């Protein structure tokens, strides 16, 4: 039988938040062990650092210019011909997603046989001015209904007073730990192992909502980090440190000077959520053993994007800096059939579009021609040949005046802000925290020209008019969704 495939994703976890990669504080024992016995990709990025476009890359294996989502926009239908779940289902796999999908319509299966859904707090579904008090959202979210069956019909995910996007306010989870969304995702994943068709291999996507805010870890995990010395955020020489509008006083801020005790508490809670997830992953791994599938289940762990968490006085995601755009990426193969070198650190630059072809390759399932990504399996083999691997990735995100594009090969990063024309260039080998913008330094002029030329080529022909093939054009109107996706939804 073909191997089982377990895709584990988290929401908003930074790429540096693994003890295995040298983080000075965080505890991730189960992920460390998966990495120790598998391969870790140290230059893994999300091309579009927010939930919806990042998940489009995971589900379709496409570049953002092809899947069409280049910014954050809800309520755009998902009608892709080829999805990762659809391809596995067509190949005879029993498929299930547990947790966050963030697609539209909300209960769209996107090729899965079944989805047990919890997207977290969805603003467009939670607008009670447009729905009845017992809204359709309340009825369609599986976690909320499960929670109310156990904790009371009036319980809601907003009861702890934390905003769903707050990066600066934290408090412990207010109910029993077993009722936390992280535990629920594993409980439901284990239940799938009980209910699955044993005559078929399975593709299970366990999709955690945390460590995305609210920052609400169970008390035991918060205690691991609360009150100890935590890393100070990097502040680049280019960062705006004035905060004249006092944006840091907004608990859902994207930038600003936040009260230091509040920042420390938020960081402690963020780390605690990650360790909580790690422990629950350990619970899921134990269930694989108990159901007799541990040795025949290939595991891929990653995140949809990161979290700036105060880097350069910035919060949340979307922007192209390392804290936001870089993600963890671990491939573990207990079957031994992929030929991975145990413990290998792969520094070739990869992206979320590579997940679909990697997992299809692992299962010997044909990869559709619509897929832009490539399997990362050969990069982790003992005699890896990277001659045909990509030279760099292109990322972007529409975000008003801060709309940006970036290119990186994991060693250098070039950023262009399309509305202002500002350029940044970072030497990530010497300056991994992006403290020094070298774009304006004369001795790096040739390097700047090289990377600018690459972006000119990448954007040539794009509908927004960012490039005419010879120069970048500043001030063109950014869009969140490219027209070919919208037009395809009309037919």
UniProtKB/TrEMBL annotation:
It is an enzyme of class 3 (hydrolase). GO terms for molecular function: arylsulfatase activity; metal ion binding. It comes from the Bacteria. GO terms for cellular component: cytoplasm. Residues 241-253 have a biased composition (Polar residues). Residues 3-363 form the Sulfatase N-terminal domain. Its EC number is 3.1.6.1. The keyword Metal-binding applies. This is Arylsulfatase. Residues 236-255 are annotated as: Disordered. Belongs to the sulfatase family. Keywords: Hydrolase, Metal-binding.
